[in-house]
């Protein structure tokens, strides 16, 4: 999913109408992996039939009972200030804590900083993700403070996620190693650009997307935690680790929602899973732009892959994990279209791994090159 694999990517089969979400699935060639560029696709909106909206609404009591308890109240949650130098102590003590943070962050290589900044920017575009969830039919927060359990989940999830960007941002600011102005411009641009995950306002697809994404961010933050520890920055390791544990809890909730949908509406959910994978899961920050590097996202992504923070192999792992977790191979009672979707999804991971092998062969043949990142004062990172 870095720039090397783009030749293997192709647009998903299109030819859909705006009224029904379910389309033919490919039998033959499959190129799969993370979507990394903006492809031109027809904008499909509100594709979910009203009978499915009723299914979503019928789950409200279940969401209240089985999903909302996984949110943590503010007084039981960690907060960014738990991990950062305490600015309310006498200045000398505060300065000593900041100095320790800076001494440890001095060990981090530039490529690592680029990856961490990218994670932070992705977290900071949270307004985009809250409005993403609120675009899905049947789960809308109609008033902005609605008592509907779906709406409560979206707000509670957002409130928890909000701590991630705050914590990473403050850490990076105090480290003194990054160009905050360029980072802040990138965040402003990203929120203004938004994202189109192609979920068609359809919560079946939306929750497949969020299951995938939360698992992917769990893996990403877990790997940045491990690398920080290896590089001698235990504070940053704790920071990335605590964020990863939130992502894990959120992942579990979204996986449970899709599991429930599979139980009550098996074929529709199976088709939604196949549809999202066929389109490929887009990274939420794919529209990032710092106003300088026109290939910023692919350069950033090459750094992510280069450090092994998230690779095509990880994409296949996430997929395999979800296939097993949702027991997709054992689903029964599917229509023939549903069975085709099942076959497609269950056979996808090995194909992605093959694609990864091909990418690696390409990568070995390609010469390494340096890219300057504005986020780290235009220093060059070898990709
Ligand atoms: Fe997050
Ligand atoms: Fe998340």
Automatic annotation (TrEMBL):
Example GO biological process: fatty acid biosynthetic process
Domain of life: Eukaryota
Cellular compartments annotated: Plastid, Chloroplast
Binding locations of Fe cation 2: 161, 214, 247, 250
CDD domains: Acyl_ACP_Desat
Annotated Fe cation 1 binding sites: 123, 161, 164, 247
Cofactor(s) needed by this chain: Fe cation; Fe(2+)
Keywords: Chloroplast, Fatty acid biosynthesis, Fatty acid metabolism, Iron, Lipid biosynthesis, Lipid metabolism, Metal-binding, Oxidoreductase, Plastid, Transit peptide
InterPro entries, A to Z: Fatty_acid_desaturase-2, Ferritin-like_SF, RNR-like
Family annotation (Pfam families): FA_desaturase_2 (PF03405)
Keyword field contains Oxidoreductase: yes
Principal cellular location given in the protein's record: plastid
Cofactor binding remark: Binds 2 iron ions per subunit.
GO cellular component, one term: chloroplast stroma
UniProt GO MF annotations: metal ion binding; stearoyl-[ACP] desaturase activity
Keyword field contains Protein biosynthesis: no
PANTHER family assigned to the protein according to its UniProt record, in alphabetical order: ACYL- ACYL-CARRIER-PROTEIN DESATURASE-RELATED (PTHR31155), STEAROYL-[ACYL-CARRIER-PROTEIN] 9-DESATURASE 6, CHLOROPLASTIC (PTHR31155:SF31)
Family: Belongs to the fatty acid desaturase type 2 family.
Name the record gives this protein: Acyl-[acyl-carrier-protein] desaturase
Lineage: Eukaryota, Viridiplantae, Streptophyta, Embryophyta, Tracheophyta
């Amino acid at each position: 999913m870095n720039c090397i694999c783009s030749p293997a990517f192709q647009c998903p089969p299109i030819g859909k109408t705006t009224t029904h979400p379910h389309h033919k699935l490919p039998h033959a060639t499959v190129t799969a992996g993370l979507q990394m560029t903006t492809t031109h696709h027809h904008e499909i909106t509100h594709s979910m039939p009203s009978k499915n909206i009723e299914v979503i609404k019928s789950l409200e009591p279940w969401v209240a009972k089985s999903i909302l308890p996984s949110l943590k109240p503010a007084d039981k949650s960690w907060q960014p200030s738990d991990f950062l130098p305490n600015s309310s102590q006498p200045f000398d003590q505060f300065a000593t804590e900041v100095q320790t943070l800076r001494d440890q962050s001095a060990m981090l290589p530039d490529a690592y900083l680029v990856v961490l900044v990218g994670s932070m920017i992705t977290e900071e575009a949270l307004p985009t993700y809250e409005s993403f969830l609120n675009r899905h039919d049947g789960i809308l927060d109609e008033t902005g403070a609605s008592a509907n359990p779906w709406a409560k989940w979206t707000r509670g999830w957002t409130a928890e996620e909000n701590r991630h960007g705050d914590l990473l941002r403050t850490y990076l600011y105090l480290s003194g190693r990054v160009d905050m102005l360029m980072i802040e411009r990138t965040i402003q641009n990203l929120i203004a650009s938004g994202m189109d995950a192609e979920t068609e306002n359809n919560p079946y697809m939306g929750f497949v997307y969020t299951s995938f994404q939360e698992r992917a961010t769990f893996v990403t933050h877990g790997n940045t935690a491990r690398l920080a520890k290896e590089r001698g920055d235990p504070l940053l390791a704790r920071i990335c680790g605590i964020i990863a544990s939130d992502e894990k809890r959120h992942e579990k909730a979204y996986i449970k929602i899709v599991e429930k949908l599979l139980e009550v509406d098996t074929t529709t959910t199976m088709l939604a899973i196949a549809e999202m994978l066929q389109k490929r899961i887009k990274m939420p920050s794919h529209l990032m732009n710092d106003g300088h590097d026109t290939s910023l996202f692919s350069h950033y992504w090459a750094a992510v892959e280069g450090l092994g923070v998230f690779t095509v192999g990880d994409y296949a792992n996430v997929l395999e994990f979800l296939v097993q977790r949702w027991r997709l191979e054992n689903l029964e009672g599917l229509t023939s279209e549903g069975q085709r979707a099942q076959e497609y999804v269950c056979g996808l991971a090995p194909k992605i791994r093959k694609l990864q092998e091909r990418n690696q062969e390409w990568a070995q043949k390609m010469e390494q090159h340096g890219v300057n990142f504005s986020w780290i004062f235009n220093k060059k990172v070898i990709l």
